[in-house]
Amino acid sequence: MALPETTPTQAPAEVEGYCVKCKATRKMTEVQIVSTKNGKPAAKGKCPVCGTTMMKFLSSKTTTG
Ligand SMILES: [Zn+2]
Questions:
Q1: In angstroms, what CA-CA distances link 58 with 4, 10, 40?
Q2: Which letter does DSSP use for residue 22 in this model?
Q3: How far is the CA of 57 from the centre of ligand 1 (A)?
Q4: What are the residues whose beta carbons fall under 8 Å from the beta carbon of 26, sequence distance 6 or more?
Q5: Where are the domains of the chain?
Q6: Cα 6 to ligand 1 centre (Å)
Q7: Exposed / middle / buried, residue 17 (Cβ in 10 Å: 0-12, 13-18, 19+)
Q8: Could you tell me which residues are beta bridge partners of residue 18?
Q9: What is the largest CA-CA distance in the chain?
Q10: What distance in angstroms lies between residue 9's CA and the mean position of ligand 1's atoms?
Q11: Digits of tens for pLDDT over the chain (65 positions)?
């Protein structure tokens, strides 16, 4: 068993993102938590209406300012 263990971070049930195609805020489908280049978490999903890939950056609660 040399398979790499790919356990994704638990995705939230519902994440709202902005669809650039619909130009509207939609609730993403197939939400996955990914890491950006900066190492910050982001939610990646698809627009339920047009299927465009959507990304939403998850802000940390420990930000000051
Ligand atoms: Zn859309």
A1: 26, 13, 8
A2: T
A3: 17
A4: 16, 17, 18, 19, 47, 48, 49, 54
A5: 16-57
A6: 29
A7: buried
A8: 25
A9: 47
A10: 25
A11: 677 776 666 666 789 999 999 999 999 999 999 998 988 899 999 999 999 999 998 876 655 54
